[in-house]
Amino acid sequence: MNDRPKPYHPPVKRSVEIAGHKTSISLEPLFWNMLKRAAEREAIPLNALVAKIDAERIVSETPPGLASAIRIWLVVNSVG
What we know:
Layout: E1 12-18, E2 21-27, H1 29-42, H2 46-58, H3 66-76
Antiparallel strand pairs: 1-2
Helix pairs in contact: 1-2, 2-3
């Protein structure tokens, strides 16, 4: 039986902490799972990976929202 999340599922809101501040992010379960695996692969906590992505997006010329930045980061870094 395939335990992978169904790709078409509404976003799920979760709380994360970035630089000591809590914020909520809404991502589809597929992206939450990818983000968790990416954090494990990089051997850092999920919050630390989100903070890293946030820092990268803030300095971009046209910063997207954090949820979009996470999705883009996951695709660009071929995490799957």
